């Protein structure tokens, strides 16, 4: 089968033939129908992100995956061949978080083998492309908003980075009643998108009047919660300064660099908080599938383009360069 393989030591990525994997007891083989491309994949190829639990040097990328059950390993009950599924992007094993396409082979491939516990059923009409991006592009902002950030209705929220995660962050914040929603992105197209997805205001982080515009948007009180969905160092300093009393900054973007709190006394005096966030919990993906099936969420605008798996390297480049300003590019094996 074809698989998009990254060698962690050399940083080389290529799509090539590998043996079709066989599921061990408790595992299931899934025929991949769609797989999203995330900035984390770009970071992995660049070497900015390193797997923490990978055995060996090589991994098949891809942590946003939907498909159909192809072969059920011994001891797995309740799953029939052909069942439509979306896969949780990882699982806990002996207290360790393992991420698909990072710590074990992922879904930029014709087939992927996963523990049965990560399968989430999809209804007949659910598009494979839209389902694929729920784990991560939607579930990570969802978990960061409702769990880590604990955002309540009518709280003032800032969203830095309106790409794959941030565009959905805006949409989800709108759904749960956060207000105002202040989006921040240097790209004009991303700011337009933020307004279309439900932001009240969209600001350019590099504008001279940024601080005044943020103060105006929050009636001088500052933000209750700020989200870094960009993974850019400048975002952290800017977002911290925009927080109001007891404001919390949630770090979702991954930069790999140290965080500096320059006004540390002001940070303590105003009782600000910085919270790390990673992935989502097991209940978040099924919740989002249900909300979509109930018509509360719609990801038709989220799939910017689909490409054949063979063109994975070109998809990575398009995301890195923001060609066509994609929300999510999806690979089809
Ligand atoms: N913590 C987690 O569980 C988790 C999961 C997935 C992705 N991530 C990380 O989240 C980040 C975003 O991923 P994505 O796939 O949405 O990326 P993306 O490339 O689709 O979007 C990033 C956006 O940030 C914007 N941006 C760049 N500089 C900015 C600045 N100074 N201020 C505001 N916005 C700025 C870009 O213009 C772009 O619109 C990455 O760092 C990725 O590694 C973290």
TrEMBL record:
Keywords: Metal-binding, Oxidoreductase, Zinc. GO terms for molecular function: oxidoreductase activity; zinc ion binding. Residues 11-331 form the Enoyl reductase (ER) domain. The keyword Isomerase does not apply. It comes from the Bacteria. Pfam families: ADH_N (PF08240), ADH_zinc_N (PF00107). Its cofactor is Zn(2+). SUPFAM superfamilies: GroES-like (SSF50129), NAD(P)-binding Rossmann-fold domains (SSF51735). PANTHER family: L-THREONINE 3-DEHYDROGENASE (PTHR43401). Belongs to the zinc-containing alcohol dehydrogenase family. This is Zinc-binding dehydrogenase. It comes from Arthrobacter pityocampae.
């Amino acid at each position: 089968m074809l698989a998009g393989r990254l060698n962690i030591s050399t940083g080389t990525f290529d799509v090539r033939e590998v043996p079709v994997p066989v599921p061990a007891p408790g595992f299931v083989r899934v025929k991949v129908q769609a797989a999203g491309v995330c900035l984390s994949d770009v970071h992995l190829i660049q070497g900015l992100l390193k797997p923490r639990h990978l055995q060996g040097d090589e991994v098949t990328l891809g942590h946003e995956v939907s498909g159909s059950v192809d072969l059920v390993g011994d001891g797995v009950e309740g799953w029939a061949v052909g069942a439509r599924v979306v896969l949780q992007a990882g699982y806990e094993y002996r207290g360790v978080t393992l991420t698909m396409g990072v710590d074990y082979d992922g879904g930029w491939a014709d087939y992927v083998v996963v523990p049965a516990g990560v399968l989430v059923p999809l209804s007949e009409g659910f598009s494979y492309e839209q389902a694929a991006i729920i784990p991560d592009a939607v579930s990570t902002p969802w978990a960061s908003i409702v769990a880590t950030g604990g955002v309540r209705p009518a709280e003032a929220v800032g969203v830095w980075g309106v790409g794959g995660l941030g565009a959905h962050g805006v949409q989800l914040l709108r759904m749960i009643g956060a207000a105002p929603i202040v989006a921040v992105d240097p790209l004009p197209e991303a700011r337009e998108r933020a307004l279309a997805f439900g932001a009240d205001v969209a600001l350019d982080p590099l504008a001279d009047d940024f601080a005044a515009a943020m103060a105006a948007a929050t009636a001088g009180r500052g933000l209750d919660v700020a989200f870094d969905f960009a993974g850019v160092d400048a975002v952290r300093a800017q977002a911290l300064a925009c927080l109001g009393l007891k404001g919390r900054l949630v770090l979702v973007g991954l930069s790999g660099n140290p965080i500096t709190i320059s006004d540390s006394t002001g940070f303590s005096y105003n009782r600000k908080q910085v919270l790390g966030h990673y992935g989502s919990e097991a209940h978040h993906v099924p919740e989002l599938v249900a909300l979509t099936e109930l018509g509360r969420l719609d990801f038709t605008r989220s799939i910017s383009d689909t490409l054949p798996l063979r063109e994975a390297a070109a998809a990575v480049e398009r995301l890195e360069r923001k060609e066509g300003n994609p929300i999510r590019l999806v690979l089809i094996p």
